[in-house]
């Protein structure tokens, strides 16, 4: 494994463990909970994290980003991307679905980081702006190093949001609000 990715891999594994711990014992209704009306639900956040990881790894391994989104494999993650799709928010995310997707992805990112070569890291892949991901916009070349860092920091950012929402849900449910 490349030395520069070792610390990132460990950070990712810790973030994933924190995410799993945060949602592990939550009841189903929690996955539809929102703090404010325009926010994503806890479940949508989890699927957003996982879907973005699958998308970036697919692109980094040579798949076309638009084809990945158009594939049937992408369907479980769609509730996490309702804003990008310009659709109303879907509230059909359950604990079982989130845990299933977490298990299916499992150690996909750490395995991917372990297998990444210096040549792959220094080359480019075609990707698109996050907001335009589902709108069939032209792809642009982006350095793989940037995509790897984006994947890891995106996961960490949303993991923090999920943990905060889980904490707030627990606090409001204690007080019957």
Beta-strand segment tally: 2
Overall morphology = globular
Q: With helices defined by DSSP (H or I, 4 residues minimum), what is the helix count?
A: 7
- Roughly how many Å is the radius of gyration? 17 Å
Summed over residues and divided by their number, the pLDDT gives a mean of: 84
* Helix content bin: 55-70%
The CATH superfamily title: dinb family like domain
CATH topology: Four Helix Bundle (Hemerythrin (Met), subunit A)
CATH architecture: Up-down Bundle
Distance between the termini: 49 Å
Order of helices and strands: HHHHHHEEH
pLDDT under 50 segments (min length 5)?
A: none
The major sheet is characterized as:
2 strands, antiparallel
Task: Briefly note the structural class of the backbone.
Answer: mainly alpha
CATH class: Mainly Alpha
- Number of self-contained structural domains: 1
Protein model, in words:
- The protein has 177 residues and is mainly α.
- Helix content is 58%, strand content 5%.
- It has seven helices and two strands, in the order ααααααββα.
- A two-stranded antiparallel sheet has the order 1-2.
- α1 packs parallel to α7 and α2 (42-60) runs antiparallel to α7.
- It is globular and about 55 Å long.
- The model has no long low-confidence stretch (mean pLDDT 84).
